[in-house]
Amino acid sequence: MSSTKQQQNIWQVIFASSAGTLIEWYDFYIFGSLSLILSEKFFPDSNPTLSYIATLATFAVGFIVRPFGAIVFGRLGDMVGRKYTFLLTLLIMGGSTFAIGLIPSYKTIGILAPILVLILRLAQGLALGGEYGGAATYVAEHSPAHRRGYYTSFIQTTATLGLFVSLGVILATRICMSPESFNDWGWRIPFWLSVFLVLMSYYIRIKLHESPLFAQLKAEGKTSKNPLKESFGNKENLKLVLLALFGAAMGQGVVWYTGQFYALSFLQKTMNIEFVQSNIIIAIALLVGTPFFIYFGHLSDKIGRKKIMMAGMLIAALAYFPIYNAMDKTVDLSAKQEVTAMYRVEGSIIPQEDGSTIEKTAKIRTYSDSTVVSEITTITKDKKEVKKEVTVGTNNLIWLIVLVFIQVLFVTMVYGPIAAFLVELFPTRIRYTSMSLPYHIGNGVFGGLLPAIATLMVQRTGNHLAGLVYPVAIALICLVIGVIFIKEKKTEDGYAEVSEV
């Protein structure tokens, strides 16, 4: 086969694998991106803060079950094949996401609403647990050894791009309708759209061939009969699984979720930044930061995976407190001068189909740095709710984008090389199973629990920075283990390969 033909094949493989994985991440993350609204729709409204934490916990459940999906679909992928396994996970994810958009609210069906959401989040988590390992393995097994970090880094961009697309779709939907319509039913549209995206991705993926390395093993009758036993029952391989988890994936998981999801949660819930503006901040930072996944993946082919990942964890752990303190100061009203002449009160009465009304009153204060603070009181026949909303001026907006971008940069350092790192750690016959489990425990459990744990810590202590203790501690523990126990060696191809311990 000519080099040109090989190049065409690898890019076809990357495109098809990345498109499907991006859509699965999109499906998975619109839940987190809409967590504030979902907490109002699917949980009792007697305590908004507890409802929000319950929503984050339901969001985290999808992460917690990802290791089980890794076991189920990893075993299937090592026995049946990579291609058909991640076709199955794609359909499960798309169907679950679409169904969440159909669930009636808590006011309509009561406790059944959060139960149905929980069940569908479990299905999403199981599907994603099988997707990533299959896509990363599939691309890696098509890649030449000396370019493996570079080619697999395109898969690494999909998680961030999936979040970016989810934010983009949510923002576009929100801008195209009134806030009342969006909060009433428009939030369902991003969930419904997933069915069309999944069908397009399925059409692209169905045309792929099986991974050449796996196809060769299958032709020779050397595929694993019991991937779970070989992965976790074999002492030497189990040591590698544990090293992958506690020396890399655990720290990568908390850095990833701090820089993306906790940053959004902190902007919206702790700083009270207005919904559209907070999403714009994250979206721009993600868009600017995404190319660095590919840069650090490419760099890892030259200097090794370990150096880059460990540096990312160290810098993140040292920088988080100063970064979030700087973010928080942008909305510190004690340091701002109010322009009293611009104080105003706006009110509206919105009729409802049942004959009731929604009465809204907004007390709006403007400050000399263009910060606008609205205290919005909403009165319905059932309750009275007071909410604070902050819109920052241009200078602070740019500054917040920079601060979030720096966090995304840390994410690219730990996440860009990790697919190649995990693939190189395990033999082909049990690679899907062995790499998927530590990755999804590190990301799903240690990372996925982060927004809920951090938000709860802030609420309990009253300290806006208390939530950072968790990711900093996990990143430092992982850093120490990784520095001591992960060894790398240079090969003739000029790339770094993890050696067995």
From TrEMBL:
Q: Name one GO molecular function term.
A: transmembrane transporter activity
| Membrane-traversing stretches | 12-38, 50-73, 85-103, 109-129, 150-173, 185-204, 240-263, 275-296, 308-327, 397-425, 437-458, 464-486
Entry's localization field: Cell membrane
* Key words of the record: Cell membrane, Membrane, Transmembrane, Transmembrane helix, Transport
Specify one Pfam family: Sugar_tr
In terms of one coarse class, where is the protein primarily found? membrane
Query: Where are the coiled-coil regions?
Result: none
- Per the record, GO CC terms? plasma membrane
Q: Which residues form the Major facilitator superfamily (MFS) profile domain?
A: 13-490
Q: How does it sit in the membrane?
A: Multi-pass membrane protein
Q: PANTHER family under this entry?
A: MAJOR FACILITATOR SUPERFAMILY TRANSPORTER (PTHR43045:SF7), SHIKIMATE TRANSPORTER (PTHR43045)
Name the UniProt record assigns to this protein: MFS transporter
